[in-house]
Specification:
- The chain has 287 residues and is α+β, with helices and mostly antiparallel strands.
- It is 74% helix and 8% strand.
- It folds into two domains: 187 residues, no CATH class; 90 residues, 2-Layer Sandwich (Alpha-Beta Plaits), CATH 3.30.70.3040.
- It has a four-stranded antiparallel sheet.
- The chain is elongated, with a radius of gyration of 31 Å.
Length: 287
């Protein structure tokens, strides 16, 4: 094992141009991937916060059977919470927010309706619940915040599809760089490999230094990418949080550590797979 490790280190130093090129390509790809992951986590956090604030408002006609409507709506499995706000309570809250209306409120009849405020388990149920509410007796109008819901669902779709494409492209670029680097190392040691085969060296013995080389290239690239991305993210959050105090930026050290660990494992896996592909191609050519 030590022999294989020393051979891998020698190959990285001896083939330093290809190694630096591979590390640069992988570091760039992994940095972009970490950056996207951090943006994705923050966007999901913001969308989850927005989801918690989205609600439907069902306005009732005068004389509606509030108790029956309440029991009916609470029985729907898609509804997370239901709050009834009477017209007098709504007017009182409005006067608190706008004291200038206090005098006018005592001179005219309360124009506000009794209202149900509903929060759903999933914004995707919004259209269905709106349709059900409109069919209930005693409901005059439903406000479903459709624009916010459409934005929420569209952002989720774009994030999922765009993220999948970006991950495939970046990992493909990193894998291609590893394969080319290992092939260059194999070419540089072609005569040595031929001698080892002639003296009876096993395929595993020949492969191991190149597998370790790919592993080390992935590990070095991951360390550089994380060294750039994580501190950069922390500085960016510190600056942006001062300007956008309402945005729930992710600062959880455990979550950041989980992302860093996952990226390191992914980089090392790409290194191993890329080197295995390069070695397998060479052995097939020599068979």
């Amino acid at each position: 094992m030590m022999y294989a490790f020393l051979q891998a280190m020698r190959a990285i130093r001896g083939n330093w141009i290809a190694s630096v090129s591979t590390i640069t390509t992988m570091t760039l790809s992994l940095t972009i991937l970490v950056g996207f992951s951090l943006v994705s986590v923050n966007l999901n956090n913001a969308l989850a916060s927005l989801q918690g604030e989205l609600e439907l408002a069902a306005y009732l006609v005068d004389g509606a059977n509030v108790q029956q409507l309440t029991s009916t709506v609470r029985a729907w499995p898609e509804v997370e919470s239901l709050e009834f706000v009477s017209k007098s309570q709504a007017l009182a809250e409005m006067v608190v927010d706008l004291p200038a209306l206090g005098r006018a409120a005592g001179l005219v009849e309360n124009p506000l309706p009794d209202t149900f405020h509903l929060r759903l388990l999933d914004p995707a149920y919004t259209s269905l619940i709106r349709l059900r509410l409109e069919q209930l007796p005693g409901v005059s109008e439903v406000d479903d915040s459709s624009a916010e819901v459409a934005t929420f669902l569209a952002l989720n779709d774009v994030l999922r599809i765009g993220g999948s494409i970006l991950i495939v492209v970046l990992l493909g670029a990193a894998l291609f760089a590893i394969v080319n680097s290992i092939r260059a190392a194999i070419t540089a040691r072609k005569e040595e490999i031929d001698v080892m085969r002639l003296v009876g060296a096993s395929r595993g013995f020949i492969r191991l230094p190149f597998l370790l080389e790919g592993f080390l290239l992935g590990l070095i690239s991951a360390a550089l990418a994380l060294g750039l991305a994580i501190p950069g993210y922390q500085v960016a959050v510190m600056r942006l949080s001062e300007q956008f105090t309402f945005v729930p930026f992710v600062r959880d050290a455990a979550l950041l550590g989980w992302i860093a660990g996952l990226l390191a494992l992914l980089a090392m896996l790409v290194g191993l797979v890329g080197s295995a592909i390069a070695v397998a191609q060479h052995l097939r050519e020599q068979a």
